[in-house]
Amino acid sequence: MGVVASSLAQQTQPHDITQVDAAPLGGAMATPLPEAQRKELMKYEIPELAGSRQALGSQTIEGSLPQPIIDYIAQDANVQQRISIFQGGLVVVDIRGAGGPIRKKVIIPDDALKNYMKSINALAKVTPVNVPQPRGDRRAVLRIYSDSHAYSERVFDPSGVLPQVLNDQVAPMRDLLRAISEDRGVTNSIAGYMPKEGDKLVGDDRKVYKVMRIMDGTIVELRCMSQPTTMYVAVKDLYNYFIGTTGAETQ
What we know:
By secondary structure, the protein is α+β, with helices and mostly antiparallel strands. It folds into 2 domains: about 1-30 and about 190-250; about 50-180, Mago nashi (Mago nashi protein), CATH 3.30.1560. It is built from 5 helices and 12 strands. Strand 4 and strand 5 (about 100-105) form a beta hairpin. The chain is elongated, with a radius of gyration of 20 Å.
């Protein structure tokens, strides 16, 4: 894990429990992957997220919420996926399906943001008559916002054959959505978290664990709140096992 550990350290910053996101009820850390692909991700960072950094705490800009730039939403009978890019490079993903909700955020670098913003002018070239219409439960939307908060959009069948101009805009959004959904590092606010006795965390197994003690500043003892189970995890590896705080547990 040398490559990943080094890269992740550059993308995160030490923080306490107050900057760790509340885990969504019944939520998951990431999209499950086949074992072979999971091992590959342990050795190499996801290209689409190169240079990205954690989105910790409030993401306001001069006291206001960042303005939306692009939305891509796709849904079928079983899964709804949404990725939104905001001013300042903030990217938010919301996936809802049978495996439990996944909610993540990350800040992409300026050069990557500029590449995604190329869609703003290109969408006008796509005439609705040439777009495959939604069918049954299948529906997707690419929405581009203007500075005046107005927006233009194209609605289509995500499984249909798209005109080249539209596909050139949709494909990068799909790739970024996939990358964020599979990532277990920079998009997880547990990465960089410095534990304190008494903190409560939600595990990837959806159980709640309490931090009992920190040994030598490197190993954390955690006790499951619902089962007689104790875990010992290195501080630097907590992001591999936990997805957030218990804030959502009381909702």
